[in-house]
Amino acid sequence: MTAWDGVRVVFCVFFTMLLRVHEMRADEVHMCSCGSDTDGGCVANQPCGPGGNCNKENVAYGKQAEISSRYPSTGVKSGPACVAVNGRTGHMMKFPSEDGTNCVHTEVNDNDPWWQVDLGQNYTVTDITIYSRQGEVQRLAGIRITIDDKECKKLPPDTYSYSLNHTTACDTPLRGQVVKLSKVGITDSQIKIINFCEVQIWVCRPGLFGQNCDQSCHCRSNVTCDNYSGKCPNGNFSTCENKTYGENCREQCGRCDNSAAACDVFNGSCQACQGNFDLPSCTGREIS
Ligand SMILES: [Ca+2]
After folding, report:
1. Distance from the CA of 233 to the center of ligand 1, in angstroms?
2. Is the pLDDT of residue 192 over 90?
3. In angstroms, rounded to a whole number, what is the distance separating the alpha carbons of residues 198 and 206?
4. How far apart are CA 163 and CA 11, in angstroms?
5. 52, 113, 163, 215: least CB-packed within 10 angstroms?
6. How far is residue 95's CA from residue 234's CA, in Å, rounded to a whole number?
7. What is the whole-number distance in angstroms between the Cα of residue 88 and the centre of ligand 1?
């Protein structure tokens, strides 16, 4: 073998390894969006939130998703990551070779299985619903849900706590963009698998806020408020009705003169007071 042959062999081995690493990356961390060719298409007609609360919407639907691996390592695989947000909530697992691919399933030997979805923007998440695979509800055990790497919820490690449609909420409301489901504290290789058919992430519809999404935003120029706290974004302040002021219009104006404008939306001050009430807030005892 000449020196040149040796160089060619080294290059060949190097590029072969590079190609394999690339293939493994593409295979093991499969990123996709609902509507791509590989996910079997999306189902429209999204349902209302848990308990039939139509003030909540599912912001995971059709968003970009990733998964750590796809069962099996060779041959016909589980659906790609995005089939867990494609609107198909059926519990019977179908592979991509069948119509209506619906569920994800990580490789049995995946020691760090996870699935995640990028919501595309920040939201404060109120509830999350996971649709189990028929006959494998126990695979929800030990799922750890994080939002932008902050822990939202750890599902119990026992295998008897789950139903086909499992709805949970963060221990405290968390705001973020990337919602990740991984496995913690599970050693049984069959339970450790990430295997579910749909994940719905519920937030208040634009213009609404609160735990039950039953309060309306009060921001200038109809800018929507934070979907949980109701706070208006910087530079857009509340406008209030019914003689109220302050954050989310929770304060009541004093005895402003009815002929003047309502009190200041920031500090409640009046331009003039009724009777002999004292400026600026026209509250307290009337001055005789
Ligand atoms: Ca699905």
Report:
1. 34
2. yes
3. 23
4. 54
5. 52
6. 47
7. 4
Percentage of the chain exceeding pLDDT 70: 82
| Ligand 1 centroid distance, CA of 1 (Å) | 56
Q: How far is CA 260 from CA 28, 222, 283, in A?
A: 66, 24, 16
Q: Exposed, middle or buried: residue 69 (CB in 10 Å: 0-12, 13-18, 19+)?
A: buried
Measured between alpha carbons, how far is 56 from 39 in angstroms, rounded to an integer? Answer: 26
Per-residue pLDDT band for 229 (boundaries 50, 70, 90) equals confident
What is the 102 CA–ligand 1 centroid distance (Å)?
4
Domains of the chain: 27-205 (2.60.120.260)
Angle at 122 between CA 120 and CA 126, to 5 degrees: 110
Highest mean pLDDT pick, 41-50, 194-203, 269-278 = 194-203
**Ligand 1 centroid – CA 146 distance (Å):** 20
The whole-model pTM stands at 0.76
pLDDT tens readout for residues 11-29: 434 433 443 333 334 444 5
Quote the ligand 1 centre to 100 CA distance (angstroms): 9
> What is the CA(85)–ligand 1 centre distance, in A?
5
Q: Please, which residues have CB within 8 angstroms of residue 2's CB and are 6 or more apart in sequence?
A: none
**DSSP H helical segments within 37-161, as ranges?**
none
- At residue 148, does pLDDT exceed 90? yes
pLDDT band for position 141 (cuts 50, 70, 90) = very high
